[in-house]
Amino acid sequence: MILPVVAVLIGLGVLVWSAGLFIDGAKAVAQRFGMSPLLIGMLVIGFGTSAPEMVVSGLSAAQGNPGLALGNAFGSNITNIALILGVTAVIRPLGVHSNVLRKELPVLAVATALVAVLMVDNLLGFYDALLLLLVFAGLTAWSVYEGRHHGRDSFAASVDHSLGTPQGSMKRSVITLVVGLLLLVVSSQALVWGAVEIAESIGVSDVIIGLTVVAIGTSLPELASSVIAARKGDHEIAFGNVIGSNLFNTLAVTGIAGSIHPVDVAPIVLSRDLPVMGFLTVALFFFGFGFRGAGRINRFEGAFLLLCFVVYTGVLISSALETAV
């Protein structure tokens, strides 16, 4: 039992550090290739912060633990909205002026509804997963279009301010990117092995482990980048991180896991986890869209999101204890 716990702790630590390397390298390479700030914000930063979820879920599914993959994806989405945006908004209220980000909010809601519909039969099969990946490909194409045609968006200005000038040579940037990716894979392997061993040792499902320890751990890069962005006044980077990451988790991470190994969706996931994720996504839409002007998540709404996270986590821990007894 000691070795799996050590594997999880070390795996999480290296995972967070390597995710930072990977994102920094990707941003520098993208800048040197002349990618627009808006496109870097929508693809490289938003989707790049979901690299840990992608690698962990892919490895979990490949090793025959699709429940851990699904728990990681859904748990990360819940953590991103309730914990990360909750903490960030309490520290500093988040204003959302970007038209691009406001367009992504209903897209995220529709993507969440699509996943729910595909899982109604308690199974995410290969063709379900393929549909999610095709939708993700279409969304990526739309992101490229938006990045090329809406370069003056306020989100682009925030990203441009945050990026600054790339440091070092192109060679160094590529090495940072590759090393970060390799460490992501190795640390994810250790994390998955340790998480599965712990789940089997204490008698709880791998879904619970994925929803709690793994989900929170793989969301740490988003938490760090969002809090730093908010403290600097770059509100829309913090908001864009979460929207981009959740879209990636919902469509790409879930799709990759389901395409590798069919996912049997436990009834409790449909009755507990999917509704929570859906509720938080709808709440994020109403908070951030701004029907009478710019969207905003104030401190009260941030505290409400945090309360949702605490209650949900308490329910998961209670469920795990009941199962283990």
Instruction: Report the structural category.
Output: mainly alpha
Total beta strands: 4
Q: Please outline the major beta sheet.
A: 2 strands, antiparallel
The portion of residues forming beta strands comes to under 5%
Within the CATH hierarchy, at the fold level, what is the topology?
A middle domain of Talin 1
Largest sheet, spatial ordering of strands: 1-4
- Supply the CATH class: Mainly Alpha
Q: Looking at the structure, what is the overall shape?
A: globular
Number of helices: 13
Q: How confident overall, as mean pLDDT? A: 81
The arrangement of helices and strands along the chain is HHHHEHEHHHHHHEHEH
Write a concise synopsis of the structure shown:
With 325 residues, the chain is mostly helical.
Task: Give the tags.
A middle domain of Talin 1, about 325 residues, two-stranded antiparallel ribbon, single chain, mainly alpha
Describe the structure.
This protein has helices at 2-32, 37-48, 51-62, 66-91, 99-118, 126-149, 154-163, 170-202, 206-218, 220-231, 235-260, 267-289, 299-324; strands spanning 94-96, 123-124, 263-264, 295-297. With 325 residues, it is mainly alpha-helical. It has one domain (2-324): NCX, central ion-binding region (A middle domain of Talin 1, Up-down Bundle). The strands form two sheets. It has a two-stranded antiparallel sheet. A two-stranded antiparallel ribbon has the order 2-3. Helix 4 (66-91) crosses helix 9 (206-218) and helix 8 (170-202) runs antiparallel to helix 9. The two termini are 17 Å apart.
